[in-house]
Amino acid sequence: MGPVKVHVLALAAHPDAGRRYLDIMLKTLAEFDRRFGPYPYKIITVIDQAVYGTQVLDYAVDSVSSSPVQWWVPEPDDKNARKMVPYMNTVYLRRRQDFVLPVTVEVIFDDGTRVRDHWDGVDRWKKLTYVRNAKVVSAEIDPDHSVLLDVDFFNNSFTTKANGIPARKFTTIWVAAQQFFAQIAAWVV
Predict the structure, then answer these.
(1) Burial of 164 (0-12, 13-18, 19+ CB in 10 A)
(2) Domains of the chain
């Protein structure tokens, strides 16, 4: 395998931490190479907050909205004419805890286009705005699922249209369980 990139994300409160982590990683990679051979991965990321901090990582997509730019004009009934209407699409992201980490956000529109933005995570919240001829369908923080330190993965995405499949599945399981326990009760009595 080729060279390994080491990314060190250190807080400003620990100015010498970056160099110290880099030295430790170089020694660790040399030892790994001596014992096991070349390191199989290309990138290593060391996060100062995860080593010396007690912060919790939790990012969320708070809301997604799409409204016509010319809101006073009624929307056309024709599908082809509706594709020509520009929409103001807004996505609100929020850092719910103290852990600061840059993340990637993917926004999907109803015409199939996908846009990836980067958020440094320093501010408590961020507003992403897009003016397009399409409405937002969904937004997801960390679409590659590479940040495993997040404590709540369920709030990392937001869709504008509800999916009824999970509710139907839960209802089916609930009815089957009720029938099963009713049969057991009838057998015992």
Answers:
(1) exposed
(2) 5-52 (3.30.429), 59-165 (2.60.40)
d(CA 173, CA 189) in angstroms, rounded, equals: 24
DSSP-assigned letters across all residues of 118-154: EE---SSEEEEEEEESS-EEEEEESTT---TTBS-GG
Residue 99 CB burial class (10 angstroms; 0-12, 13-18, ≥19): buried
* Amino acid, single-letter form, for residue 16: D
What is the per-residue pLDDT for 73? Answer: 77
Question: In sequence order, which residues have a C-beta less than 8 Å from that of residue 101 and are 6 or more positions away?
Answer: 9, 47, 49, 57, 121, 147, 149
Alpha-carbon span 66 to 88, nearest angstrom: 6
Per-residue confidence at 1, pLDDT binned at 50, 70, 90? Answer: very low
Give the pLDDT band (50/70/90) at residue 130: very high
Which pair of structure tokens corresponds to residue 56? 């919790």
- Token code pair at residue 72: 């006073």
- Give the dihedral sign, CA 67/68/73/75: negative
d(CA 179, CA 186): 10
Model's pTM, two decimal places? Answer: 0.66
